[in-house]
Amino acid sequence: MLTRRRFLGYGGAGILAVSSGCRPQHLDWVVNQAEASPEINLSLADKAKLKTQKNLLLGYPVNMNTLSDDFFAWRRQLLDAGINTFAYNNVGNPFKDSAIPNNTHDFEQELILRFGKLYGFPPGNTWGFLSHSGTDSNMHGMYMGRTLLKGRTGVLPKAYFTKEAHYSIQILRDLLGLETVLVETLPDGGMDPNDLKQKLADNPSHPALVIATIGTTFKGAIDQVDRIQEALKGYTSHLHLDAALFGGYLPFTAHAGEVSYQSQSNPALARYDSIAVSCHKFFGFPSPAGLFITTKSHFDEFNELFSQIHNPEYIHHVPGTITCSRDAVKPAEFYFFSTPSAMDKLAEDARSMLQNAVYLMEQMQSHFSYLQPTRVNDRSNTIFFRKPSDRIVEKYSLATMHLDINHQKQEYAHVVVMPHADRKVLTEFMTDLDKDSMPLS
Fold first, then answer.
1. Alpha carbon distance 62, 417 (integer Å)
2. In this structure, what DSSP letter does residue 251 have?
3. Distance CA 292, CA 334 (A)
């Protein structure tokens, strides 16, 4: 008999089971999972403690600043409108009407046009979308490049990149079934355009899908886009920029030309074909997301080829994206960062961040020269140095890796100076370095 006490003791699933006359056998297992798995600690209190330590994260390119009150006010407006309270879906091309009315394509389209303008894409010739991550944006850039090049030539391209490129490029190259042509690097870690030119000459029968990096993962090197374009003259090619971190802040500095689509000396000249920028790095967006931006003319050519390999009648248009269902909440939330007040704050963050990178480099050269600190260019917020003690690596979550220095493998660490890494945090870090008496290996 189902008494009132027993009825109130059931959760929603239990009520449904009892009311239908049977209780699923697995329900007791689900309810008792906490008792069955004592090693799992699902504690929000422990998560809350992380808030007091978040500014000590120095080894990875994540902006740990708490977002502004204005951002959370915007989130509340979205919530009041129903966004993120029931299922929304941005399936398809954000520049086309969707068969699913519950979408935020309008916000997504507008933020792509605004950021496209920031990166110098021509008015009326901009296309893109908000992806799930920087890697997702790289995937779309490389897939688009592969599709266009094969469509133009009938031959699969080879993928050209350096050992300093982000590991996602290696994964995506394998996923796309492309042969790698590894290009040598300059002393700063950037792609060597002369070696690229030689490698292109060695592979004349294949088009070239070139992935350049604007801010390499560990050293902060910048591949020289204009020199790469010079090397590509006479070859059928597609140049994709992985500008995950640097692409976030460079547009707000005197070095904006590094990520500009149009050449400053010749606005009619395109410097690259597509660009990927992470939203959760410099911008500090609270979950992984990425901008992917290209030209509408590239997209239209790609979409014609894309339509030949699948039947998208179900959603009433060719989507233009590899991913089908797409997050509709992120574009609506990230739209905030395209507003004038948010961009003013981003410009302020970019300025102070680079100033703090200069400060850290100068202090380390003065007081810790034995660690061989290096900042490879004046646009970088990354300083790498000989690995300190494990205690410091752990406290500041430093990324470490072995570098080939003078033909010897040596272990290095780096600090990526993000907006949360202010002088107080950097001073604490250097105080710990000063106390660190562990000898170098």
1. 9
2. G
3. 13
pLDDT in tens, 30-55: 656 555 565 677 788 888 888 889 99
Mention every residue, 6+ apart, whose C-beta is less than 8 A from residue 381: 220, 245, 249, 353, 354, 357, 416, 417, 418
How far apart are alpha carbons 387 and 440 in whole angstroms? 8
Region of 274 please: left (phi>0), alpha (psi -120 to 50) or beta: beta
What DSSP designation does 318 have? -
Residue 22: predicted pLDDT: 64
DSSP string, 348-413: HHHHHHHHHHHHHHHHHHHH-GGG--B---TT--EEEEE---HHHHHHTT-EEEEEEETTEEEEEE
**The token pair that represents 312 in the structure block:** 């998208």
Q: Can you give the pLDDT at residue 327?
A: 96
Give the list of residues 6+ apart from residue 361 with CB closer than 8 angstroms, or none. Answer: 373, 375, 383
HSE of 414, CA atoms in CB hemisphere, 13 A: 22
| pTM strictly above 0.85 | yes
- pLDDT computed for residue 17 by the predictor: 47
Nearest to 320 by CA among 96, 138, 18: 96
At 103, which amino acid appears?
A: N
pLDDT digits (tens, 9 = 90+) for 369-384: 999 999 999 999 999 9
Q: Rounded CA gap, 376 and 369, in Å?
A: 15
Task: Select from 164, 251, 253, 279 the least CA-distant residue to 211.
Answer: 164
pLDDT digits 0-9 by tens, 193-230 = 999 999 999 999 999 999 999 999 999 999 999 999 99
Give the single-character DSSP code of 285: -
CA pair distance 215, 278, nearest whole angstrom? 12
287: helix, coil or strand?
coil
E strands, 136-282, in order: 158-161, 180-182, 208-213, 237-242, 274-278
pLDDT digits (tens, 9 = 90+) for 235-285: 999 999 999 999 999 999 999 999 999 988 787 889 999 999 999 999 999
